[in-house]
TrEMBL record:
This is Uncharacterized protein. Residues 1-21 form the signal peptide. PANTHER family: INTERFERON ALPHA-INDUCIBLE PROTEIN 27 (PTHR16932), INTERFERON, ALPHA-INDUCIBLE PROTEIN 27-LIKE 2 (PTHR16932:SF18). Keywords: Membrane, Signal, Transmembrane, Transmembrane helix. It comes from Pinctada imbricata (Atlantic pearl-oyster).
Amino acid sequence: MSLCSLAVGLGLVAATPTALAAAGFTSGGVAAGSMAASWMSAYGGAVASGSIFATLQSAGAAGVSWATSFLTGSSAMAPCAAVCSLV
């Protein structure tokens, strides 16, 4: 594993909660005027249980566990290693 892919993976671990909040998936629900609010309005306000939106909303409301953040970051390491080897 290259230092580049390790840095990207660890960056994603740290950035996952911040990215959710920036998109509008907050502990108080979907933030008004956010990307998440626009996406939700496209559904007409009815979000299917188990959908990607519902999963992101749950993660934003409940917080993202360390394990979930780690899986997000580690799943990106292999593709990043391939890209980093080309650079």
